[in-house]
Amino acid sequence: MLVEFFFxxxxxxxxxxxxxxxxxxxALEKRVxxxxxxxxxxxxxxxxxxxxxxxxxxxxxFAAHFQGAEMRFAEIAGEIPLEWLRKQAELMLSEEEKxxxxxxxxxxxxxxxxxxRLAEQDDRHQGGNKWIxxxxxxxxxxxxxxxxxxxxxxxxxxxxxxxxxxxxxAYRNLDDSVELGTRxxxxxxxxxxxxxxxxxxxxxxxxxxxxxxxxxxxxLDIKMVPERHNAMKLLLFFDVGGSMDPYVRVCEELFSxxxxxxxxxxxxxxxxxxxxxxxxxxxRRHAERTPTYEVLRTFSKDYRVxxxxxxMMSPYEITVAGGSIEHWNEESxxxxxxxxxxxxxxxxxxxxxxxGAWKHIPSARITRELMQDRMFPLTLEGLDAGxxxxxxxxxxxxxxx
Amino acid sequence: xxDNRFSGTDTYIADDDLQMAVNAAVTLQRPLLxxxxxxxxxxxLAEEIARSLGMPLHEWHIKSTTKARQxxxxxxxxxxxxxxQLGDDKVKDISNYILRGKLWEAFVSDQRPVLLIDxxxxxxxxxPNDLLQELDRxxxxxxxxxxxxxxxxxxxxxxxxxxxxxxxxxxxxRCFFHYIAFPNHDTMKKIVKVHFPDLKKDLLQEALxxxxxxxxxxxxxxxxxxxxxxxxxxxxxxEDIPVETLRGKDARKTIxxxxxxxxxxxxxxxxxxxxxxxxxxxxx
Lengths: 401, 284
Prior knowledge:
- The structure holds 2 protein chains of 2 kinds.
- Chain A is an alpha/beta fold.
- Chain A folds into 2 domains: 2-174, no CATH class; 232-391, Rossmann fold (3-Layer(aba) Sandwich).
- Chain A contains 17 helices and 11 strands.
- The termini of chain A are far apart.
- Chain B has a 5-stranded parallel beta sheet.
- In chain B, 32% of the residues are buried.
- Chain B is elongated.
- In chain B, helix 9 (185-195) packs across helix 10 (201-216).
- Chain B is α/β, with parallel strands linked by helices.
- The N and C termini of chain B lie far apart (64 Å).
- Chain B has 13 helices and 9 strands.
- At the A-B interface, helix 2, helix 3 and helix 9 of A face helix 1, strand 1, helix 4, helix 8 and strand 9 of B.
């Protein structure tokens, strides 16, 4: 039964491994959890699920798998749950109602048909008059009108019923199925690291110390060097708005990954294509702009430049002066792009659109030509290839084509 | 089943699922990774486990510059070199210059200890990977002295993370995991009760109402958490604020007194003031 559950979790796309499954079995063997299904739910979650974003999916799989198994658990644990149900029902029911239950065939009958229906039913149910669920007139379920109703998944007598916890699915909004985690992005970006010694000298330089001590006729002469830091400088240009909206998430991930990995990191936004102005704050994009010339002046040639954009626009927005959809640009985007690329020999363009679509979009084709083929898809492999490109030493910078 | 089961303490309210996770980690001798919103008592958990199970506590606070090595031991070569210059006899024994790290200390503890590795996500991205073997086998090798350090008693390892970096899968597989969800109204009441047993009922009710209302304000950068609530109540008590000041007003329409304890970000305060302003104008 547990193996089945394990494979169900795996099928649901949860990253569970055999090690974790064995840990769960070991915990069960050591009797960390009693035969209570709620305990088991918590224990299995602590063992198997390692990310709160997966809690919701775990709840769903658990509910699907153990809907029927609840009863089996009840049997394992003895007759208590049944007794409990009976007691609660007896408390709630009047004499008259109890007689009507007898008319239906008595308690045993009622429980038997409950079991049967649990087996038949395979998903959550609301309303109606047969299935178990909430707010119906079936004899089984919560908030029912039927006097013979058996409560399932309801709070009672200060004891929380197990079903309710995963029925609540409290972790719903934390779930996400983004495949590109920031960790993967960071690992791809790590290749960009280039270590150099800068700043305060706080590390012992062993070679130099030995050397100096020897020169000092054996008297110790300690030499210190600064710790190695990542000296790679990075400049990012993000396309925002319009057609980029579906990719906001992946861009945010890239951004946050880059930000924590690089000390020298600057970013600017543009819309569709690079013109004479860029900006750092999208809310005040009209008030606070940075002239592109200033960017070129501020950042030295050794900055690595990454453009992120889908390059989806009318070709005129690139090739013609005044082609921008936002303002009147004196010089075409093409000219500006060439200026930027001339200044920064190390540059790539990351495109969230799938590679296959590029050649069908004229603007993407033009941009790719402008970038001298240095356009990569915004996937892990693309990022990897792009980073390798950035590390390559380009002897002859971009020339006008 | 087991007499040293953790079930919360008189100053720490632990939910059923947290207790289960802790007990699983204690019994199976595997690390427990705890995540959760800031201020939900992740770090405090280790202290409370140590206290309630009567174990010594070793704390290792991680910074961005912390290296995995430092938790095991450090070889102070510079001191040894200096001593050799001064002709100190100590210099002959290299073990005089091996400085024990937190992990080592925990490993050689006579009694089973609790080891807290606090904010593991602060360190370099490779940090957790460097500790895999040490946490798995609870042993490591000291190359300088050719000595194998093995845990006398496998410590209860509690690791906290604020989610600043994703942790590697290989590391996660070796841990139990628990996410401390934000407490609901009832649990929060219990938590406050534990910290302020003499608090008047009506003041508690009003404070909690405004607190949860503030948390519900959409778009806050940093929503106030348990520790902020406790600070705020402490302030309310210290300033002797009467219940009436809190009562009868919708927290969305007024800024609660001493809100500095709840909102720690000037943008949040601005946002709050703007909402209050809009509400007032609409009411007119």
